[in-house]
Predict the structure.
Amino acid sequence: HQQQQQQQQQQDELNAETARCQHLISASRDKTVKLWHVETGFCDHTISDHHDWVRCIAVRPHDGGLFASAGNDTVICIYDSSSKQKVAELRGHEHVIESIAFVTEQASNSTKKETKHLETVRDYLASGGRDRTVRLWKISTVECLAVFKQHENWVRSVLIHPSGNYVVSAGDDRSIRVYDIKANRCLRTLEGAHGHFVTSLAMHHTLPILVSGGVDQTVKCWMLD
């Protein structure tokens, strides 16, 4: 039994090292964001910058260098993952923020050459909220690049397409919408994507597959062209 425990512990350590992940981040109605050490299970750090319920968090995928949090106080806080210090605040939403997202991307390969376009889109953050807007932010300049107002009800989920050229959103108007960042316009609308509120979106980082979930108790896969 002891040998099994040791083997399991070694496997857990290997998994954490392979994932290059030391911390798990959580957000709560208690107004805090907490960083948990994956291997020990202990809380290493507590952030108390928000003044109300923290509803969503996001970590920059390729390097984990930044993470963001947002919620009922309508402020998006950006943090440096190493120092745990807040590096920016993004303000503009007029109601509860339901979702935030960095560009959808797999963890980077250190030998992969980064293009100028990739560096640009890694500086993006998308957000959506109960003010019915989808917003695109440039983190380094603390600037709102675009505000999309096509949704007719709360925006529940947002993501940035792996190409960095599109923002995708979904909401309580039962639609999924695709926005062209460069053209600054709504490119496509899937009306009645679900029979009830559309609450979540996810995108495969290499395949053109979008997945959505809703209050209608269904999960749908969409093939994007």
